[in-house]
Fold these 2 entries.
Entry 1:
Amino acid sequence: MHTSLPDFDMPNEEQVHLAAESFRLLSDPTRIKILWALLQGESNVACLAELADAAPTAVSQHLAKLRLAGLVKGRREGTFVYYSAADEHVRRLLAEGLFHADHLDRAGHAEGAGEAEARLDAPPGERAAAHAR
């Protein structure tokens, strides 16, 4: 079926793996807070810990993982390291994730899997009524 589509294209295995790894790293609320703070400007561990409401040791561990994934970069100045978001891609990735979170159907998101399936299986006219319950 998909071979009949003229512009059908799948990402290669490396792209899929790297994207999944980035999403996995972004699945932690503290990391999202850290990255969002870094999008506002460069910062150090102590400041990020305060902004993310987390222990400095935890923030340092999160930063190490984010740095290895290429999502943040560090700049050493004497004994301090100042971190920043790696590039504009990080801003777009987080902005899209937060935009999506703002536009989730809260009632639909909170319902059980069975309720969601039942609503999707219902005829179109009954879907809205099932959702309103």
Note: The chain has a mean pLDDT of 83.
Entry 2:
Amino acid sequence: MGERNTISRDGRRFSYPMAAGVTIYAGNVVVMQAGAAKEGLVATALVAVGVAEATVVNSGSAGASMVDAVAGTYLLDNDAVDPVGLADIGNDCYLTGPASVAKTNGTGTRSRAGRVRAVDVDGVWVTI
């Protein structure tokens, strides 16, 4: 085989088609559910893909608008009822809202947000 000009990306920033009738606010976790983007929430079968760069309103049908999400390590709120602790660094944490995480999957009711990198007084540093 000969030379090939293979296109690449940095692997952090992607655009995703939004679910119908949703708003995703800048700075909130973006998840995919059945091929459509929405904000993080308590539900199963969600895949966290990053954090929204800007607020996007999709008042149309599924896929009518796109949201840009960036993967990385972000400071998220620590759930008051099921908090992530220092002993959880290196483990997975789970979504409890658009910008909050918990230590456990809530007996199978929460989706994975990402990997805990640090915990401090301001919240939980999560790699998504």
Note: The two ends are 37 Å apart (CA to CA).
